[in-house]
Amino acid sequence: MITVAVAGCAGRMGSAVVDAVKAADDLELVCGIDPSCPRSSEEGAYPVHSSVQDAIDAADFDVLVDFTRPDVVEGNLRVALPAGVDCVVGTTGLSDETLAELAALAPAGTCLFYAPNFTTGAVLMMEFAKAAAPYFPEAEVIEMHHCKKLDAPSGTAVRTAALISEARGRDSAAPGKETEIAGAEGARGALVSGVPVHSVRSMGFVASQEAVFGSLGQTLTIRHDSWDRTSYMPGVLLGIRSVGERDGLIVGLENFMA
Ligand SMILES: NC(=O)C1=CN([C@@H]2O[C@H](COP(=O)(O)OP(=O)(O)OC[C@H]3O[C@@H](n4cnc5c(N)ncnc54)[C@H](OP(=O)(O)O)[C@@H]3O)[C@@H](O)[C@H]2O)C=CC1
Ligand SMILES: O=C(O)C1=N[C@H](C(=O)O)C[C@H](O)C1
């Protein structure tokens, strides 16, 4: 049995993870961590703590899952990793440098696993974008999310841009040569790893992304949509089941996909 604590258990993702862990025969939900936690406390089915330190003081668990906030996750990991708790992190907004620094806080045998996106479809979308990148001089990323998302651009878009940039080894030719219209700066998006990234926030979306490639007389669009947060759960459970056998920093669900 793998024992699990879920940070952000009252949130959109955290509450779905709680349900998925409870439904899995080989996993045991030890507690949640969430200072607001209305849903969990009402249900009363499992203890909910207001900090990771309180959770560690109260009970042992093998894995901490974190779906909290970009301004909270680092503090949670600074407590959990030195205590030797394997961490499965979906919260976006941490830089590569910070992830490496946090992983170094953990004793040998402890794993920090971060996936900017836990859906198999988004992992494949990024792999296909990486494969296409060398063949197209232009590439741009458009990501579309629900209005309550706190960060922009999305973690998936940042990772996709980095993969495109690595695969083609040069910046896009497009941005920077246009005349900016006063009051409309930013129309060409944010340059991430040399790739323009555009963020849309609207009701109706959960999470969608297009990687748009262009060359002479042709475009290639690679698109992924998550229409429901259940799409992330198989990947999160795979991460929980896999981290115990791994060590150090691992970035990306592709590392565990067969
Ligand atoms: N990697 C992936 O596949 C995915 C990643 N995400 C990422 O996950 C993160 C969470 O997203 P989402 O579930 O939509 O956000 P929510 O705002 O719905 O959930 C976050 C929860 O964390 C709580 N929280 C705040 N501070 C703490 C703390 N110190 N300890 C524990 N919990 C805390 C929040 O409480 P309060 O509301 O009171 O602040 C809230 O209940 C985001 O960074 C998002 O980008 C989302 C979907 C998929
Ligand atoms: O906040 C979200 O909802 C999502 N966040 C992740 C990201 O920033 O890429 C993953 C997915 O896009 C949903």
**Tally of strands:** 12
Ligands bound here? Answer: NADPH dihydro-nicotinamide-adenine-dinucleotide phosphate, the ligand O=C(O)C1=N[C@H](C(=O)O)C[C@H](O)C1
The amount of beta strand, in percent, is: 25-35%
Weakly predicted, low-confidence segments? none
Over all CA atoms, what is the radius of gyration? Answer: 19 Å
What structural class do helix, strand and pairing data support? alpha/beta
Major sheet description:
7 strands, parallel
Oligomeric form of this entry?
A: single chain
Strand order in space, largest sheet: 3-2-1-4-5-6-12
End-to-end CA span: 22 Å
Please write the string of helix (H) and strand (E) elements. EHEHEHEHEHEHEHEEEEHE
pLDDT averaged residue by residue: 93
Please give the share of residues in helix.
Answer: 25-40%
What form results from the Cα inertia axes? Answer: elongated
What is the structure about, briefly put?
With 258 residues, the protein is α/β, with parallel strands linked by helices. The chain is 30% helix and 26% strand.
Task: Explain the overall architecture.
There is one protein chain. This protein has about 260 residues and is α/β, with parallel strands linked by helices. It has helices at about 10-25, 40-45, 50-60, 75-80, 95-105, 120-130, 155-170, 235-240; strands at about 1-5, 25-35, 50, 65, 85-90, 110-115, 140-145, 190, 195-200, 205-215, 220-225, 250. Helix content is about 30%, strand content about 25%. The strands form two sheets. The chain has a seven-stranded parallel sheet, sandwiched between helices. Strands 8-9-7-10-11 form a five-stranded mixed sheet. Strand 4 (about 65), helix 4 (about 75-80) and strand 5 (about 85-90) form a beta-alpha-beta unit. The longest helix is centred in the middle third of the chain and has 14 residues, at about 155-170. The protein is elongated. The two termini are about 20 Å apart. The model has no long low-confidence stretch (mean pLDDT about 95). Bound molecules: NADPH dihydro-nicotinamide-adenine-dinucleotide phosphate (NDP) and the ligand O=C(O)C1=N[C@H](C(=O)O)C[C@H](O)C1. The site of the ligand O=C(O)C1=N[C@H](C(=O)O)C[C@H](O)C1 has 9 residues, from helix 7.
